From TrEMBL:
Keywords assigned by UniProt, alphabetized: Hydrolase, Metal-binding
GO annotation, biological process: carboxylic acid metabolic process
Fumarylacetoacetase-like C-terminal domain location: 56-250
Protein's recorded name: Fumarylacetoacetate hydrolase family protein
GO molecular function terms noted in the UniProt entry: acetylpyruvate hydrolase activity; isomerase activity; metal ion binding
SUPFAM superfamilies cross-referenced by the UniProt entry: FAH (SSF56529)
Family named by the database record: Belongs to the FAH family.
Signal peptide: none
Keyword Metal-binding: yes
The keyword Zinc is assigned to this record: no
Length: 251
């Protein structure tokens, strides 16, 4: 496999391999040993969906030291994670909706891990075998509510607050990838995944010692420095080396 997407035409939802802009339909189970049709499927009327339907979305905070500094928080001694509502997922091309325009609401570019196998008490050295692939994401955050609540579930779980996709890249080394965010064409975040405090394999291992990860679950691995506010009309583009860009607008 390589880049895999989830698509819809009419009432039909299907997975397909994406090769040079063409779709080759998947046969079988995404989390098993799927095969793909040899002829591309017509693109007319096809729209891109969020690439998975997870049982849970797990977000990791303060996983880049420069981001911890810009927020005035200490670097954690072990991964700091919480849950985002799966209903907050938004596909590539979707519109981020700000529920409280009077609040500060921020972008956060992130690399997302897609779990491929049931994982419990996995070691870091074995973690790669439980990962299906990677995709781009954002962890949109209502900073005003984050400050007032003292916990992060509500401020990050509004509908549309987790853009994800467009595709899962199944052949990718996540250790040192450029991660960038552009706001209206202006570069706002620019870092490398090598700057993570806890790398992808350490995160899967740590989280799996506390709960069971299921196929399709999503782990957001944290954001680097450069976070900032969004407003209606913005165009946000997450670019991560080796992945298709994730592009969303704000209303």
């Amino acid at each position: 496999m390589a880049a895999i997407g989830r698509f819809q035409r009419g009432e039909e939802v299907f997975y397909a391999k994406v090769v040079e802009g063409e779709l080759y339909r998947m046969q079988g189970d995404l989390f098993g040993s799927p095969s793909f049709e040899r002829k591309p499927t017509p693109m007319k009327g096809v729209r891109t969906l969020v690439p998975v339907t997870p049982s849970k979305v797990i977000a990791v905070g303060l996983n880049y030291a420069d981001h911890a500094r810009e927020t005035g928080k200490s670097v954690p001694r072990e991964p700091l994670f919480w849950f985002k509502a799966p209903s907050s997922l938004l596909p590539d091309g979707g519109k981020i909706e700000i529920p409280f325009p009077e609040h500060r609401t921020d972008y956060e570019a992130e690399l997302a891990i897609i779990i491929g196998r049931r994982a419990r008490n996995v070691t870091p050295s074995a973690a790669s075998r439980y990962i299906l692939g990677y995709t781009a994401a954002q962890d949109i955050t209502d900073r005003t509510l984050q400050a007032s609540d003292g916990q992060w579930g509500r401020c990050k779980s509004f509908d549309t607050f987790t853009p994800l996709g467009p595709y899962i890249e199944t052949k990718l080394d996540p250790q040192d990838l450029t991660i960038q965010l552009f706001q209206n064409g202006q570069l706002r975040q620019n870092s490398h995944t090598s700057q993570m405090i806890f790398n992808c394999f350490q995160l899967v291992s740590f989280i799996s010692t506390h709960l069971t990860l299921l196929p399709g679950d999503v782990i957001l691995t944290g954001t680097p420095a450069g976070i900032g506010p969004i407003q209606s009309g913005d165009r946000l583009e997450v670019r991560i080396q080796g992945l298709a860009p994730l592009i969303n607008t704000v209303k």
